[in-house]
């Protein structure tokens, strides 16, 4: 097995373990669909518990926000070395359109920058029948595919370096 394959498997397992300890994610049925060294795809299956308007079957915005925050946070946890805890510092969401009832939602999250104290991420939520369709839409340059929402999020690094003074810090 190549180093890239081993890294892919390790990242997938790390992401799945992280997601498995979040009770609300279990309740919502969220799963990790794809992980490589730059992207994480998470699925939120369509179900009655994520519906905001029972008359139309439209997904509640809070469900979309939870999906994006979780996908970005899982990406941060997965792509940083070790097991560093990084709570959400800021999350800016743009809702592009209402999700089509009956279709699963896929969050395609990327870590865009890692600094000494903050990790920056982006995420698109795309709907479709399979995660392969979501990834293809996300990778199409300039394509919005079936884009439902997008976000930019920042996560504060407090994990492994907690209690360790950084160079330049004063007491």
Q: Which shape, going by the Cα principal axes? A: globular
What structural category do the secondary elements indicate?
A: alpha+beta
Low-confidence stretches: 167-171
N-to-C span: 48 Å
Mean of pLDDT:
86
Q: Into which percentage range does the β-strand content fall?
A: 25-35%
| Rg estimate, integer Å | 17 Å
Number of helices: 4
Helix percentage:
25-40%
Task: Please give the largest β-sheet.
Answer: 6 strands, antiparallel
Strands ordered across the widest β-sheet: 1-2-6-7-8-5
The ordered string of helix (H) and strand (E) elements is: HHEEEEHEEEHE
How many beta-strand segments? 8
How do the helices and strands line up, and which of them pair or pack?
Layout: H1 3-20, H2 23-28, E1 31-35, E2 39-44, E3 51-53, E4 58-59, H3 61-79, E5 88-95, E6 104-114, E7 118-128, H4 131-139, E8 147-156
Antiparallel strand pairs: 1-2, 2-6, 3-4, 5-8, 6-7, 7-8
General description of the model:
This protein has 171 residues and is an alpha+beta fold. Helices cover 30% and strands 33% of the residues. The protein contains 4 helices and 8 strands; from the N terminus they run ααββββαβββαβ. The chain has helices at residues 3-20, 23-28, 61-79, 131-139, and strands at 31-35, 39-44, 51-53, 58-59, 88-95, 104-114, 118-128, 147-156. The strands form 2 sheets. Strands 1-2-6-7-8-5 form a 6-stranded antiparallel β-sheet. Strands 3-4 form a two-stranded antiparallel sheet. Helix 1 (3-20) packs across helix 3 (61-79). The protein is globular, with a radius of gyration of 17 Å.
